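Handout, section B. The chain below has 810 residues.
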Amino acid sequence: MKIKNFVDSLECDFFTGVPSSSLLKSLSNYLELKFGSSPRHHIIAANEGNAVALAVGYHLATQKCPVVYMQNSCEGNAVNPITSLMDEHAYSIPAIYVIGWMDEPGIYDVQQYVYQDNVSRKLLDIMNIPYYIVENTTTEEDLLKKIKEFKKILGNDRSVAFVIKEGALISDIDVVDNDNDISMRESIVNTITDFTGEDIVISSTDEISFELFELREKKRQDHKCDFLTNCSMGHASSIALSLSIIRPQERIWCIDGYDTLIMQMGALTRIGNYEPNNLVHIAINNHSITQSSAQKFKILDIAKACGYKKIYQVTTLNELKNVLREVVLNKTLTFIEIKDYSDSTGNFVKPMITLKENKYGFMKNLHKPSLVLRRKEMSYLLSIKQYDKVLTCFSEIFKNFNYRLNSYYFFTAISAFKELYPQDDVNQFFNKHYTEEMDLGEKITELLTSDYFMNNIDKSSILFENLLEILFKEKDIKLLYRNSFISLINGLTTKKEIKIDIPSNNNYILLSGIGWSGSGAVVDYLKEFDNVIFSGYEWSIFEDEQCGFKNLIKNKDNHDTLWKQAIKFYFGLLGCQKLSSNWWVHKALFGAYNRAHSEHGKKKYAELMGIMGKSLGNLILGALSRNKELCNSSLHSVGKILLSLCSADFDDNSTIIIDNAVHINNASILQYLDNAKMIAVIRDPRSNYVSLKRECVAYSQDTDEQAKTFVCRYKSKLKKISSEIKLLTQHGGADRIKLVHFEDFVLNEDFRDSVVNFLFLNLKDWTSPQKYFKPNESSKNVYNFKDYENQDEIKLIAKLAEEYLYKFNE
């Protein structure tokens, strides 16, 4: 069907919209031919919402029905004025919407359009706008029949829509390109990127973004500096503004299209107001919507009035190069208009990376190195089953970071990694990163825990010397560990207990939550006290069931196993045990290695390991001689030393906060940690769920099943906590743990005072009030479920976990 026949069939004489696709440009060109430059019949709008408003004004002035045209990916811009002005529940103003279905599956396949395609017709349904899909098989007779039906709806002051598929309307008019020195936008983008170097580039519109991507591919350059915001409806400049404010050390380039700039021209006032001197704003003016003589924009005057400091207009590539040479030498808020009379050929290469890959690559470059970001990237790649890329990501982690000191944080994703890969592949991956010291620690453990361990003492001692040569250069450190190992062996070779003097100059606060329960607020508050030090990282050696302290406690009555586990525990404290695909083992081993090699605490750690060797030697002796009393006292000694090892980096006579070393569900371990108390933070399940949803990748779906799963896990955790506290009470440790509701802590100052009194602190030492903990800000998290977007989930959680809801005083 020809565009002329389609337009004539509508029997309307006022059209307004945004020609943001080839179909709509052809429609706009025909309207220009039909009506000339008269704004009484055709107005090209700045954006789709603006077009709807123009339609309202036309109807009020004439009582006639206007036509509003737009691309379906831009419907979002029109939703507010349609619902607040046009809808029958508002002013009930009729209009005919002509919507180009640009993102029809298999036609364009632009990633940003995929979700919009899923919701565009649903939006029409939600707004109660009947629509008819015009296809290339639709005849004029079909159209006239539908228009006759639609006229009845329009007569009742309601709107209708025609959704036009690609190729459904045919134009007899070709767009004539003018000739100019700058003939292709690709040349413009190419010239700009010659000057941007490693700077940040924010690109707008399909053409600019796709050409930028294609240029990087041709030049074999990474895409890490580019953030592609095509389909952002003119918001590229606002993204660039916030980046320039937050990252003042970086130069930010925004390559904007003229149409998109006009869509959100108000952003220019904000940019001028904040005056970021590191922002260069480039607008490529290809006159795509300014061909009408009615459209006259003096963009340079507007930019100047908004507050841009340097303003340029160029019409040739040489002029552009000269301007860019000047720009890179000066740091000031700059606006450049590039006059380009060519239209894009459309033969661009669409990005071959996903939008999230673009985001993670961009952020990885911006925040280099960022362990948290890489963890999120890995989680995303796992979720879309890009296994090869996961392996690449893991390899980059081990290559680019000191994995022995840092990368154990990444093993929060290891459970998913283990489930998605064959176990042999997982083991093969970790074996590639199996270091010599791990191998030696494993071999010594095997020798000393064999049935013929007495025959292996000398060989083990030689291997231990080799291990020390690998681990340490300092002679005094080696001597301390050598004596420690001799004390350990003493438990195997003699029947004499070693007397131990354990220094206990610090107090310890074990802090734990149930996952996004708000324990960070407690940490922030306690850091405001003198002599309170936050250890800064978790250490799973306390509760790992393969090589940790919990494993010793679990086997305290199984003497045949206990002495072997004590040896394994010793080498775990050096980080010298074999890696496996178990997340907790990794965190335990890497945490231990980190502390043993800390620059400030290395010698103190070695001294404490000397005492640990004696305590473990006594534990081995107690196990081999079936002496329960010695085993029990030795476990208490090991617990005290383990706490001291956590604070090897810090001065004595302090109170040390150890975060998530012992979780609430393992609170019974406290019975062997004599100089420690625990703060266990729980939270209203509703706000707990919202925090999980907003911060945890695993809770990204909006489903009732997910909410039910959360409640099930929440209840299970609280029942386990109750059981652990009961067990601890049976061993006389009821005064060692305080259960803290996040809501009480944030909202009640008296309750915070009670926390201080429970611990080893004095309110007189609270010298930095609200330096870290700000009650007013934290209170927003208390009530976060009230403004959560899916209230049905909140109601479901409230129903399923009613007995656990916090009782607010309202």
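Note. The two ends are 64 Å apart (CA to CA). Compare this with the example in section A.
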